[in-house]
Specification:
Elements (H helix, E strand, L loop, with lengths): L1 H20 L4 H13 L5 H21 L6 H13 L2 H24 L12 H16 L5
Length: about 140
Amino acid sequence: MRREWICFLFLLLLSVRDIREKKINIVLLLPGVVLALYQIPDGFLRAAVPGFLFSIFVFVLSFLTKEAIGMGDAFAVLLCACYLPFYSLFLIFAAGLFMAGIAGVFLILIHRGNRKTEIPYLPFLTLSYMIYLVSNFLGIKG
């Protein structure tokens, strides 16, 4: 469980930066990935392969959509894949997309944005990750 909180701290730091500068410094992700790989529990690497494949899918998606989901966001998903099993990673990713979509609709409704308005995804990924951590802490399994 402590490993997952380390990932959350990295995501939180990167989210603040993403909101302020609208970009993610990939150099700040590297220590999180190295730390995760250093602390790999027995058997985790084999279990993490689907998560790493999903990360590759997000990188390809980023490339194909001309970074509608940015490369920095794809690296953040890779960071999460280093700490989480695939099922949890996929749920967190999907919940983040759902929350970002709700925020986009809200911005359109209050006339602060349109279909082309860019919304930073990483804060929503971080929020869904936090909900995952809190629900696990409270004993609620998803």
